[in-house]
Design goal:
646 residues, mainly alpha, 33 helices, 65% helix
Length: 646
């Protein structure tokens, strides 16, 4: 007898009703999703492939008993006796149902509801569910409530729906317990009662219902119907997420991402969170956008522009404005996706029409530069001014550049200054730097070094290398003050670390000027970096170091190479020394013709020694020049204010 019951239960579990059940929901959307089915004893079957029912009566051995008919129908349906035959199963269920078997009535109701083995007939489905429900079959009670709730085969009645949900819940039907709990929690169809809601949700949650676990988490988190308990709340949230409930996966994923980004701890949990977010992202453009951002910025996952573009594209197709903007930027740059300026502009237009200031800014810039669209100054100004009116500092800065340059519109320094100040006040770092330079140079205003350094500081703290360099120089007005020197070194080192060549050269000057001579290695390191980054002064002085064997072994060939690099950038001292090297054959072959060419350039650029040497060799210069500083005034005579590059 027990073996027979186990076999029957196993066969019932194998019935492939999941697809049929999903079809039943395809036509009438349910206000409460019902993804779970249960046994009458309360066993949750997860993602259903059938229903397992624990019968409350012994199964007789005589073959003529009414339960044998649904058993035979199950065999026909499962395909264990041959090809799956829904029609044969229905005929056997009908025979058993007509003989009063409640389980056959229940299965027959499902067949008429889903159209499996019979023409879909909600009215017949309702009638069979009603008969089985009256015989106390919890699954039938649950589906009967569902019919009342969704106007399937009977008039809609929230009252009757909740009455049968509560009956099924009392009989251990887990999803009915969940629905009852939610109805009480939110006052839908029942009078709101958060405490009673917690009772029903806890029953379902303890039985493994992931949705009930999620809402129980919310009750513990918010203290609704239960004492607030963050630790217990998180335990239920994790159980729900691991049980597959999408909202729980998303919520826990976001919590763990936030924790990792703040504390940089527990990377495995954060990585798992990304996996959960991928699982639930398919219909959630916000989550798609978040995933794209993670891949674009290399947060938690390895930076992958192609994967970022894929997620942004998914979100953009569902109308997410920020995703459209991000994808447009990648299309403009060809970053992780083939460059397509026309498509980028199309996305920017869609995003701009939603009032996105960043999209308005980029669209204005596209019209200004004719990128992906025909150049149109009027449209450029329209979109930039629209974004600027929305407080977008990048648009304000772009307008200041347009009015300052005078290329697209007549030059208007007053309007340029007004937009520059607005952008700077709104935190645009390039505007802050340029405003600082205006005060430093007295451009359009009285010179004011104090205000200049204030604006440099604001931009420097936003990691703008040029501003860090300029702000570092602010502390060099008092070189004998150790505290100011340390501040100067701090900001110059930050700029130099971003390959700002002038900052690297300035550090070399500072370290080389130490009276104790202990920082020669640091001086050489930064001098070499500045030279490699194309800074002419650094190339010139590195040439001198190599020529004279200062901090490095003497190497005349290398000295000539550095002189040439600086000379090609118009450095007068390097032009003079390269001419000497070629004239005397130091570091390579003699080449008088080329030597005199460089000496003439040096003379034209003010090197008196070059003019004197040319006269000695019978060459005449074109103008008189002042005598230069001695060649080895390192570092005292090097000007402290090296022009900053924007």
């Amino acid at each position: 007898m027990p073996v027979f019951r186990r076999l029957l239960s196993a066969l019932l579990l194998a019935i492939p009703f999941l697809a049929a059940r999903e079809n039943a929901y395809a036509h009438v959307p349910a206000p409460v999703t019902l993804p779970r089915a249960t046994t009458t004893a309360g066993e949750c079957l997860g993602d259903l492939s059938g229903w397992k029912t624990e019968h409350r009566q012994p199964i007789p051995e005589q073959t003529g008993h009414s339960l044998i008919a649904p058993f035979t129908g199950t065999l026909d349906l499962s395909g264990l006796t041959g090809k799956k035959n829904w029609r044969a199963a229905r005929l056997r269920y009908e025979k058993a149902a007509e003989n009063g078997d409640p389980f056959a009535q229940y299965f027959l109701g499902l067949m008429y509801l889903t159209g499996k083995g019979a023409l879909k007939n909600p009215e017949k489905a309702f009638d069979w569910f009603l008969q089985a429900a009256r015989r106390n079959v919890p699954e039938a009670q649950y589906w009967l409530a569902d019919c009342y709730a969704h106007d399937r085969g009977t008039a809609k009645s929230d009252r009757e729906a909740m009455r049968w949900y509560r009956i099924a819940a009392g009989n251990g039907h887990i999803e009915a317990q969940t629905v009852t709990g939610l109805a009480l929690l939110y006052g839908v169809g029942l009078q709101k009662n958060e405490k009673e809601a917690a009772v029903w949700l806890e029953k379902a949650a303890n039985a493994g219902n992931a949705r009930a676990q999620y809402y129980l988490y919310k009750q513990y988190r918010n203290g609704t119907g239960l004492p607030a308990n963050p630790d217990t709340a998180m335990q239920w949230l994790e159980r729900s997420a691991r049980g597959g409930w999408p909202d729980a996966k998303k919520q826990l994923g976001l919590i763990r991402l936030d924790r990792y980004l703040r504390k940089k701890d527990n990377l495995p949990q954060a990585t798992e969170a990304v996996t959960w977010l991928k699982d639930v992202a398919q219909k959630d453009p916000k989550t798609m956008h978040l995933l794209g951002t993670l891949y674009q910025d290399g947060l938690i996952v390895r930076a992958d522009p192609e994967e970022a573009a894929r997620w942004f594209d998914k979100a953009a197709r569902q109308g997410h404005a920020e995703a459209r903007l991000r994808l447009a930027v990648q299309l403009l740059a060809g970053d992780g996706i083939a460059a397509d300026p026309e498509k980028a502009v199309s996305l920017l237009q869609q995003a701009a029409l939603t009032g996105n200031p960043k999209a308005e800014t980029l669209l204005g810039a596209a019209y200004a530069g004719g990128t992906g669209v025909e150049q149109n100054t009027a449209k450029a100004l329209y979109w930039l001014e629209k974004a600027a009116a929305h407080g977008e500092p990048n648009a304000q800065y772009e307008l200041s550049r347009i009015y300052q340059d005078g290329q697209l519109v007549p030059k208007d320094e007053l309007r340029a200054r007004q937009w520059l100040e607005k952008a700077a006040e709104n935190g645009q770092r390039d505007a802050q730097y340029r405003l600082g330079m205006a005060y430093r140079q007295g451009t359009g205003t009285n010179r004011n070094d104090g205000k200049a350094c204030e604006w440099f500081a604001k931009a420097a703290k936003q990691n703008l290398a040029a501003a860090q360099y300029a702000y570092g120089n602010c502390f060099l007005h008092t070189p004998d003050n150790p505290a100011d020197r340390q501040k100067a070194l701090h900001w110059l080192t930050l700029a130099a670390g971003q390959n700002h060549a002038a900052a690297q050269f300035r550090l070399a000057v500072l370290y080389a000027g130490d009276s104790d001579g202990k920082h020669g290695t640091q001086a050489l390191k930064w001098l070499e970096k500045a030279a490699e980054n194309g800074f002419a002064d650094a190339q010139y002085w590195l040439g001198i170091f190599c020529h004279d064997g200062v901090h490095v072994p003497q190497n005349l060939k290398t000295a000539r190479r550095w002189y040439r690099k600086a000379a090609l950038q118009g450095h007068p001292g390097a032009q003079y020394r390269l001419g000497l090297s070629l004239l005397d054959g130091e570091g390579g072959d003699k080449n008088p013709q080329e030597a005199f060419g460089w000496l003439e350039k040096a003379a034209e650029n003010g090197v008196a020694e070059a003019r004197y040497l040319l006269r000695q060799h019978g060459h005449s210069g074109n103008r008189s020049v002042a005598a230069p500083a001695p060649a080895h005034d390192w570092p005292e005579k090097i000007p402290r204010q090296i022009p900053a590059r924007p």
